[in-house]
Amino acid sequence: MKFSHEENGYNIECTHSGQKRAYGDLYKEFTVKADKPEDEVREYCTASVHACGLTNEQYNRDNRDNPSAENHFRSSYTLTKRGYGEYFYRVISPFTD
């Protein structure tokens, strides 16, 4: 599923939505273009593009320090700057059956 839209000075394109392999985690991936500071882009993405408040780094740290189902079955995100005004936003949700 690919879609794109423009809103509030953000150009959002969903580049992937779904599993990348059988029984794999669910990935939602977006290319975000905006002439705004990274912290504003992060706030917009985690609130409006696909809501998620847990960074991938914190998710990994929590699972390493306290492995539990409660810590494992949470979505996490990464936001990577690709160049001037372009970002890659990914939300990963663990596989559940």
Question: How would you describe the overall organization of this protein?
Answer:
- The chain has 97 residues and is α+β, with helices and mostly antiparallel strands.
- It has one domain (3-93).
- The chain has three helices and five strands, in the order E-E-E-H-H-H-E-E.
- It has helices spanning 38-49, 56-65, 69-72, and strands at 3-7, 10-19, 26-34, 76-83, 86-93.
- Strands 1-2-3-5-4 form a five-stranded antiparallel sheet.
- The chain starts with a strand and ends with a strand.
- The model has no long low-confidence stretch (mean pLDDT 92).
In sequence order, what are the helices and strands, one letter per element?
Answer: EEEHHHEE
Helix content: 25-40%
Enumerate the spans where pLDDT stays under 50 for 5 or more consecutive residues: none
What's the number of structural domains?
1
Mean pLDDT over the full residue set: 92
Topology:
Blueprint: E1 3-7, E2 10-19, E3 26-34, H1 38-49, H2 56-65, H3 69-72, E4 76-83, E5 86-93
Which terms would index this structure?
globular; 5 strands; 97 residues; alpha+beta; five-stranded antiparallel beta sheet
Describe what is shown at a glance.
By secondary structure, this protein is α+β, with helices and mostly antiparallel strands.
